[in-house]
Design goal:
The protein has 476 residues and is of the alpha/beta class. It is built from 16 helices and 24 strands. The longest helix has 23 residues. It comes from Streptomyces wadayamensis. This is Xylulose kinase. GO terms for molecular function: kinase activity.
Length: 476
């Protein structure tokens, strides 16, 4: 191992399933050590985790980094967004945390939208129209279904807030993660007392919002292998951390290919979409991170491959098949009651052509989302950054190139959430913009794939099927 050129920092990604830790050399961006540990998520009607499991996984992941973690001068935590953590007066969880993908609060979300005056009011006042994932809806659910838990709550935190507080002993959050609660307003960059009154939440239970570039605290004595007094950054939510990890400049489009798909970009303009398709998130730097999500991406395509016993790369060109892979309903377009739809079959249609149609349908939905996220004056020739589990798949790359007509860049760097947290920690030491730190580290270095002529015929065919089939999934 070569000698570090600068101080070391630790970036942590506490995701839905596990904790990952990276020790990074500030001078070069070289990853000096890594660690990972899983934690538990319940199954069934709800999705919950004991926050103490996140802490145990974090400590295990950091310890796996060895002595390098103890040498770190700063640390930051990127965490899963939206989760509701309720703590008692001693700082212990009142109950397991309600996670972002716990949809039991959907009725409360619909009620809150109506009670404040409708989607347009929410978009103008908060920046987003809350759905079941937003923390405000989860608190409303808790107050309605478990009032004794709500009464016992002395502090409300998001997942990354909880972990940062375990490090420092101080209750803090940041604007990026706070913007996913539904009670932090983008126009004022402050907690909204009207929304808090609507959901029956005392402002005194909420953490202080630490400004970008400020220190959240220092590591207190405890079981972690950090030196006492190590600086702790504000941390942020996972999407904002990944944006830092990519060093995004405004207007650069990002497509994240996972079980679900995500499209986002940094913007200097505060988003306010009354349809609820685009979440008006803040980023962790002072700009904005409009984001849209599709429910069906790699998992839906892999399911089609499995049905035909095909390798996921065994696509074939041609044919007239159109497949809308809405196997779990869909958010973009907003068709929550949808199912998968296959049309345009002929006698000579091959399984490989149907598989390609599934890729086309999934990417078309993502590109619809991207069109809503990007500012009107964004450069249409800017390369798309392709990240996530599917990004290195040739069929995914070729489909994105063909349906966008844009060049595509596939960053070699993995663990972008942890890298973004590390860049935020590095910024505390150097005074740099964390995104500039990530750019200096070259986190987006990777193959740049030339654009292909845009396949207008396929895009128009899919759009027509979506338009004509909408009545099939209308809510009864």
């Amino acid at each position: 191992m070569s000698t570090a050129e600068g101080p070391l920092v630790v970036g942590i990604d506490s995701s839905t399933q596990s904790a990952k830790a990276l020790v990074v050399d500030v001078g070069t961006g070289r990853i000096v050590a890594t660690g990972q540990a899983p934690h538990r998520v319940t199954t069934g009607a709800g999705r919950e985790s004991d926050p103490r499991d996140w802490w145990s996984a974090l400590t295990e992941a950091v310890r796996a980094c060895g002595p390098a973690a103890h040498q770190a001068a700063a640390v930051s935590v990127g965490g899963q967004q939206h989760g509701l953590v309720t703590l008692d007066a001693e700082g212990s969880p009142v109950r397991p945390a309600l996670l972002w993908n716990d949809v039991r609060s959907a009725p409360q979300a619909r009620r809150l939208v109506a009670e404040l005056g409708g989607p347009q009011v929410w978009a103008d006042r908060i920046g987003s129209v809350p759905g079941a994932s937003f923390t405000a809806a989860k608190w409303a659910w808790l107050a309605e279904h478990e009032p004794e838990s709500a009464r016992a709550t002395a502090a409300v935190r998001l997942p990354h807030d909880y972990l940062t507080e375990r490090l420092t002993g101080r209750g803090t959050t940041d604007r990026g993660d706070a913007s996913g609660t539904g009670w932090w307003a983008g126009p004022t960059e402050a907690y909204d007392d009207t929304v808090l009154e609507l959901i029956g939440l005392d402002r005194g239970l909420l953490p202080e919002v630490v400004a970008p570039g400020e220190v959240a605290g220092t590591v207190r004595e405890g079981e972690l292998p950090f030196a006492r007094g190590t600086l702790v950054a504000a941390g942020t939510g996972d999407n904002a951390a990944a944006a830092l990890g990519l060093g995004l400049r405004p207007g650069t489009p990002v497509l994240s290919l996972g079980t679900s798909g995500t499209a986002y970009a940094v913007s200097t303009r505060r988003p306010a979409d009354p349809t609820g398709t685009v979440a008006g998130f803040a980023d962790a730097r002072g700009d904005w991170l409009p984001l849209a999500c599709t429910l069906n991406c790699t998992q839906a395509v892999d399911r089609v491959a499995a049905l035909f016993a095909l390798d996921r790369e065994a696509v074939e060109p041609g044919g007239s098949a159109t497949f809308l892979p809405y196997l779990d309903g869909e958010r973009t377009p907003n068709l929550p009651h949808a199912s998968g739809l296959l049309t345009g079959l002929r006698h000579d249609t091959t399984p490989g052509q149907i598989l390609q149609a599934a890729y086309d349908g999934a990417v078309h939905s993502l590109l619809d989302a991207l069109g809503l996220v990007l500012d009107a004056d964004a450069d249409p020739a800017e390369p798309v950054l392709l990240i996530g589990g599917g990004a290195r798949g040739t069929a995914w790359q070729e489909t994105v190139r063909r349906l966008t007509g844009r060049p595509v860049r596939v960053p070699r760097a993995a663990e972008l959430v942890a890298l973004g947290a590390a860049a935020q920690a590095a910024g505390l030491l150097t005074g740099e913009d964390p995104a500039a730190v990530a750019r200096r580290w070259g986190t987006t270095d990777g193959p740049l794939l030339d654009p292909l002529p845009r396949d207008e015929a396929t895009a128009e065919r899919i759009a027509g099927v979506v338009r004509d089939a909408g009545a099939l999934w209308a809510e009864d």
